[in-house]
């Protein structure tokens, strides 16, 4: 669910770019309703074009992760990748298909022709059509009332001058095209995906949200990773566990080259810098300004996975501020060394840092510049 469902008077919209686990969605809705959160067909809308994650997708993801052995991607086993595969392969079942029984039957036939061919080839039990239909029918009545042409609603809201905030779940370098392939997700996660993933046409101010250090969940290249006491401290102080998988996040120093690349790929206008207070106890703080490989200097992350794995980070070092900043809300209350750290990050990234946070609480933010 979008986080805005917790805000009274706000409309929450799930766009067409989302692979929708309808069972998980309904479960979240029902659990929040029990806690008194008002979720209805007027404040939550789901794109009619959303492809549905089904049990066959979760089966396939787990099966292929197991087949990969020591070369696993490190997926969440939620069926997201296989669902997107079916979307691109034009065999996905979309939310709008649930309205028409005849169309749904055709779509299920097409889907199972593909999945059962793979399962047979791997000596895996085939799935019966009745099983998938039952799985879908169990949820149809609960999910269909939320179905809307969200692209039209968003464009109408934009014409009315309403403010629209897009919320994504993953960082720029998990992007299927621009990320650390193959250790990526199965969709585009750069900011421009908000447009194609919703149907809205807009020239918006794009805010990039960046931690004061770098983290990653799962396998894949991570030039500034600290497999030592520094990484352990960032993990424990920052409480770095994956939101979906609950896996331990890998932690390392701020990678300015990586963030600068993400800013350019996403057309970011300004930055919100979070979790600065996590760095309070460090004597020395490092910023990666680029990489070395085979005698050559790179100020960006090369696309080749084999090169990414061998990159040597080039650091600038800064003295830590060694002062408790948690909960600070005024610029004048910040240590001089922290201000210097922010200034240097801003110069390296190439766009303004207009807001910083100093604790998990929403109120503990400091506005540095106007948008």
UniProtKB/TrEMBL annotation:
SMART domains from the UniProt entry: Adenylsucc_synt
The enzyme's main class, written as a single word, is: ligase
Question: Which Pfam family name is an example for this entry?
Answer: Adenylsucc_synt
What residues make up the catalytic site? 87
Q: Which domain of life is it from?
A: Bacteria
Q: What are the protein's UniProt keywords?
A: GTP-binding, Ligase, Magnesium, Metal-binding, Nucleotide-binding, Purine biosynthesis
Enzyme nomenclature, EC number: 6.3.4.4
Q: Which GO terms describe its biological process?
A: 'de novo' AMP biosynthetic process; IMP metabolic process
- What GO cellular-component annotations does this UniProt entry give? cytoplasm
The molecular function GO annotations come to: adenylosuccinate synthase activity; GTP binding; metal ion binding
Per its Swiss-Prot or TrEMBL entry, what cofactor is needed?
Mg(2+)
What does the annotation say about its assembly with partners? Homodimer.
Instruction: Note the PANTHER family from the entry.
Output: ADENYLOSUCCINATE SYNTHETASE
Name the record gives this protein: Adenylosuccinate synthase
Organism, as annotated: Wolbachia pipientis
